[in-house]
């Protein structure tokens, strides 16, 4: 589940995609749809793919892949092909969004809304200082979950 298990946020195509590790996110209902939220800082390479594409995926891998998840959270796809380095097998959802065959659970998401966080939105000022010392505020993406794959 989001929060207790890291996930890979992936966007692009099966031929060229980028992924990043995330633990911030949520699941719920919004606008009468089952949705996932993802949060991405502006400097992350994956954000370029997220902004360009209509769909993205959330892949939850087993704990045995923790080293690869850690790697994908610290190395930029601008510098190296993280997918190849980790030995992930790229699959393609019905909508064309890339995900990884090694995942135990994949949520395929269609973007509905993006909002940039701003300092004036914080009702608890300590959060701004603690989490954003460089003022690199996340963009929040709300997306409808349109497909799900689970490995047994």
Could you explain the architecture of this structure?
There is one protein chain. The protein has four helices and nine strands, in the order E-E-E-E-H-E-H-H-E-E-E-H-E. The protein has 152 residues and is α+β, with helices and mostly antiparallel strands. Strand 6 and strand 7 form a beta hairpin. The longest helix has 9 residues, at 66-74. The two termini are 16 Å apart.
Q: Order of strands in the sheet with the most strands?
A: 2-1-5-8-9-4-3
- The secondary structure category is alpha+beta
Low-confidence residue ranges: none
How many β-strand stretches? 9
Largest β sheet strand count, sense and barrel closure = 7 strands, antiparallel
- Kindly report how far apart the N and C termini lie: 16 Å
The succession of helices and strands, N to C, reads EEEEHEHHEEEHE
How many H/I helices? 4
Estimate the helix proportion, in percent: 10-25%
Estimate what percentage of residues fall within beta strands.
35-45%
Shape: globular
What average pLDDT do the residues reach? Answer: 94
* Cα radius of gyration in angstroms: 15 Å
């Amino acid at each position: 589940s989001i929060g207790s298990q890291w996930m890979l946020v992936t966007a692009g195509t099966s031929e060229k995609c980028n992924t990043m590790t995330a633990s911030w996110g949520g699941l719920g209902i919004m606008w009468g749809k089952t949705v996932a939220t993802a949060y991405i800082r502006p400097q992350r390479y994956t954000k370029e793919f997220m902004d360009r594409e209509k769909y993205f995926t959330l892949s939850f891998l087993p704990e045995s892949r923790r080293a690869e998840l850690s790697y994908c959270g610290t190395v930029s796809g601008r510098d190296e092909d993280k997918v190849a380095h980790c030995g992930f097998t790229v699959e393609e959802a019905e909508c064309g969004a890339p995900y990884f065959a090694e995942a135990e659970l994949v949520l395929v998401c269609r973007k509905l809304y993006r909002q940039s966080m701003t300092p004036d939105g914080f009702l608890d000022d300590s959060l701004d200082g603690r989490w954003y010392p460089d003022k690199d505020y996340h963009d929040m993406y709300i997306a409808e979950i349109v497909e799900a794959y689970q490995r047994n």
